[in-house]
Amino acid sequence: MIILKSAAESGLGAVNDRGDMVGYYEDRDRPGVEQIFVRDPKGHFTTVPGHPGAVYTEVLDITNRGELVGFYYQTDADLAAGISHGFRRGGDGRETAIEVPGAKATAPFHSNDRGQIVWLYLVGDSPYGHGFVWDAGEVEKVDVPGAIDTALFGINNRRQTVGVYVNADPHGTTTPLDAPGASPTMGGTQLSGINDRGQLAGTASDDRGRTTAVLYERGRFTTLAGPGATFTRALDINSRGQAVGDYGAKPAQP
């Protein structure tokens, strides 16, 4: 359990193989304002600035080289319209833009050690997303056949990806791999992390709306739940099998 004493709320989004973690917190003295932090293996916390001039920045991954991956909204108008831009920030603070040509919004989630980055992008006014793999400026667009919505959440160094899709039938979200007891009508199973050993991390929701973290390895699921929590999420897993996420008594924000 990782707790910031001054935080009213906090969560972890990713962990690299060294044990560096990236997450967010909301300070008790500044309610409603989220801050980004990196925690090193010794337990030291460093607050990370957002994208220069942006009204909102979210960092979702930290690579083994210490690079940060995320997205931002430059203006309040962009935030209201859902127009986001992706970035990768190196240790020297320099950023590389991660954009899908023609997209209204680009949102990177995870990167592997080869610099390949995944998540989703939006086009026009459609609420449905499309998956992508960004590789040195080249973009491969990924849509599950027959799906109206696709998102890739994780990618390992073997270029294996995990994610979710929404069937053309609007009655639920599903993935090719579901945890026992997961209800497609309540969100089903959402896999968000994959390591080089093929271990998977994600979230499963049952028909009562309860959400638990799940880990998958060699055909078997293991469930995890935070103490007293109504939702628990596993968002990433490194090659040492360490998983990170968040938990609480109310639904988590995506």
Can you walk through the features of this model?
- The protein is mostly beta strands and 254 residues long.
- It has 2 domains: 49-170, no CATH class; 173-248, no CATH class.
- 2% of the residues lie in helices and 50% in strands.
- It contains 1 helix and 21 strands.
- The protein has one helix at 76-81; strands at 7-15, 21-27, 34-39, 45-48, 56-62, 68-73, 85-89, 95-98, 105-111, 117-122, 130-135, 138-142, 147-155, 161-167, 173-174, 189-194, 200-205, 211-217, 220-224, 231-237, 243-248.
- The strands form 6 sheets. Strands 1-2-3-4 form a 4-stranded antiparallel beta sheet, with no helix packed on it. A 4-stranded antiparallel beta sheet has the order 5-6-7-8. The chain has a 4-stranded antiparallel beta sheet with strand order 9-10-11-12, with no helix packed on it.
- Strand 9 and strand 10 form a beta hairpin.
- The chain is globular and about 40 Å long.
- It starts with 6 loop residues before the first strand and ends in a 6-residue tail after the last strand.
SSE blueprint and pairings:
Blueprint: E1 7-15, E2 21-27, E3 34-39, E4 45-48, E5 56-62, E6 68-73, H1 76-81, E7 85-89, E8 95-98, E9 105-111, E10 117-122, E11 130-135, E12 138-142, E13 147-155, E14 161-167, E15 173-174, E16 189-194, E17 200-205, E18 211-217, E19 220-224, E20 231-237, E21 243-248
Antiparallel strand pairs: 1-2, 2-3, 3-4, 5-6, 6-7, 7-8, 9-10, 10-11, 11-12, 13-14, 14-15, 16-17, 17-18, 18-19, 20-21
